[in-house]
Structure of Cation:dicarboxylase symporter family transporter:
Amino acid sequence: MPKALHKNMTAQVLTAIALGVVIGAVKPAWGEAMKPLGDGFIRLVTMVVGPLIFLTIVVGISTMGNLKKVGRVGVKALIYFEVVTTLALLIGMVVANIAKPGHGIVTSSTSTTAPATLPSTQSSATQAPLAPTGPATMPVTAPAPRVAVATPAEVPASAEGAKKQTTVEFLLSVIPNNIFKAFTDGNLLQILVFSVLCGCAIASLGPRCSPLIAGLENLTEVMFRIVAIIMKVAPLGALGAMAYTIGKFGLGSLLPLAKLMVCVYLTMAIFIFVVLGLICRLFGFRLMTYLAYIKEEILLVLGTSSSESALPRMIEKLERLGCSRAIVGMVIPAGYSFNLDGTSIYLSMAVLFIAQALGVELSLGQQLGVMAVLMLTSKGAAAVTGAGLVTLSATLESTHLVPVAGLALLVGVDRFMSEARAITNLIGNGIATICVSKWEGEFDPAMFDEAIRARRLAGQDLAEHAFPVVEPKVHSEIIP
C-alpha cells in the first residue's frame, strides 16, 4: 500500500486534502500558516500556463496549414460555449427560484440600512437600469442578518472596484498593448489573440518556417516536462490550500448558509450528469469514462479551488485522448474565458440568493434581464479563486436591481463553493474540446481507446500492490 501511495497521484492528493481538513479543523492557526504551500503551487502552475498556451496554439495552427479551418474551429467553439453557458445560467436560475436558498437568511425583528451600492461604485448610479425599478434602486432597508456576514467595507477591494464593461471595451481589452505584460499578468485572452496571430503568420509563410516549427515543437515538449516536475508537488499544494481554507473560515461558517451551498453543489451535479452527460452521448462517448480519465485533475482542482491549476495537464491529456493539438490549443484557453459553466451557474444562483435574502422581488422580465447581462459579464471571468465575486459585483452594479452591498452575505462562504465552480469549469472545458474535435473531424478514436486502456491498466497495476487482481478484460469505450 505505501508503494501504491507513492506512485498514485490520486491517492496522494486525496490524502493531502483529508490531512488539510483535519489540520485546519484541529489547529486553525497551523492551517492558516500553511497558506504559502497552496499559493506557491498555484504560482508554479501559473508560471507555465502562458508559455504553454502560446506554444500549443502556435504549433497547432502553423501545422494545420489551412487558415479557413482555423476560423471554422473558432466559430464552432464559440457556438458551443454560448449554448452551454446559457443552459448553465438558465438551470441556475430555475433551481434558485424553486429552492429559494435566500429565504430565511434574515429576520424581520430588526433592520439596518444597506446601501444600494458600495461607496467606490456609487458614481455609476447614473447608468440606465435594465428595467424600471422601485425601492431596490434606492437605499434598501434590509432586515438584520441572523448570520455573521461581512460588512460592505469588508468586501474585497477587487469586488468593490468592479464596474460594468461594455462590449466594445471588452473587445478592446483582449488586444494586448504589450505582449510581455500579457504574459506577466497571465491574461489568457490576450495571450490567445497573440498566439493565433503568430500561428497564422507562420502558416502563411509556408515551408520556409519548418525549422522554426520543429524548434517550437521541441520547446513545447520541454514545457510539458516542466509541468510533470511541478505536478510532483501537487499534493503539497492541495494540503496547504485546504488547510488554509478550513483554518481561516472554519467548518462552523458553513452551517448558516448550508442551504445555499447544498443548492449550488446539487445544481452543479445536475448540470454535469444530465446536461453534459447528454452532450457526451450526443457526441458518442461516455461521461463516466471521461471523468475517470481526468480524476487526478478533478482532485487537484478540489484541493486548490482553481481550475487553472490543472490546465497544463488537461492540454497534455486531451491530446493523448485523441483530440487534435491545434483544436486543444484553441479550445482549452478560450474555454477558460468563455466556457465557465460552473461560474455561470453560481452567478445566476447568487444574484437570486442575494435578492431573496434582502427581500427584493424580481419579476420574470427582470430575471431574464439579469441573465442577459450575465451572458456578457460571465465571459472573460478569470478561472481563479475569488473571480466570481468580482464578476457578480459587476453584474449587480450594471443592473441596479439588487444592492451590491448584498455581496457581504457571500464573502464568508464563497471560498467553500469555489471548488464546485472550478471542477464544473474543468469538466466542461474538457468535454467542449472533445466535442469540437469530433465536430471538426479531428478526433482519433484509436487514440481514445488506447488512452483509456492504458489508464485502466495503470490503475490495476497500482492496485496489485495491495489487493490480488484477476486478469482484466479491456473493452472499447467508444459508443458505436
